[in-house]
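Q: Joint fold for the lines below.
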Amino acid sequence: MAVHTTTGGHEATTSTGLDNRKLFMWLFLGSDCLFFGSLIATYLMYRGRDEALGKPGPHPAEVFDIPYTSASSFILLMSSLTMVLALSAIQRGDVRRLRIWLLATSLLGLTFLGGQAYEFTAFVHEGLTLRTNLFGSSFFVLTGFHGAHVAVGVLMLLSITVLASQGRIRQQDSMTVELAGLYWHFVDIVWILIFALIYLLP
Amino acid sequence: MSTRHEQAAPEVHQEHAHPGPRTYVEIAVALAVLTTLEVILSYINVNDFARGLGIMICMTLKFALVVMWFMHLRFDNRLFTVMFVGGLTLAVAVFIAVLSIQRAIFA
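A: Joint structure:
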């Protein structure tokens, strides 16, 4: 049965009765699971191989700074809270709070990215690059792609903040914020997996 | 007079009411506690299996909390869950396949 929906101020008819943009976003996130699943599996496949093959270090235990990465993880987790509060604000029609929470989310995202840039720099100074060994290749590719996802998310959030400041995001446009939020939370859950499987697992 | 569009809109955007800010803060506190627990587990002196199991449980709980509450899968239409869980299942299948190949090659 076809159902009329309102998306971004214009009418659309969908056979599912659901917003097509939201359906697409969930489909995209499902496919992105495969992308990150493959990268994490690759990292775990090569874990410990450098030591077994006698390849030069540094190895994970020599470079990982767990307290530092824990702080980064905490920052990203809290950015999910500010993101969902932004959505809650626009669903109530509170554009001022939407802008505040979106800015807070962007700042937390930028802080996480700054922390990752610092971590990468520290690793390079310790002699670990993309070419050093299997650990370096798989680690930088995995966390680098995650960082790129965070950077895209920050750009999305800042764009929505600008649109909200121009009065172009209103209560009826809350789906736009919801879609950006879904993407942002996905980036967060990927980090939850990376933090546990790459940094913490013995 | 109520139009067809006006009747359909609430069904589309709000399958069930989303929780309020207070609930979101409570979920965030739970996430922070679980993260702290994960880090503590990574430091304590127990055998690797117990430590790994504890970390995996915390990780799974955090994952579920964000997906169910912050991403609203608990409240939204089931088709979204099918889309996401479908991708996630395929990802886990790839994960297991890759690690099985590794075990076969490097054994």
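Q: Anything notable?
A: The mean pLDDT of chain A is 91. Residues 19-200 of chain A form a domain with the Four Helix Bundle (Hemerythrin (Met), subunit A) fold (CATH 1.20.120.80).
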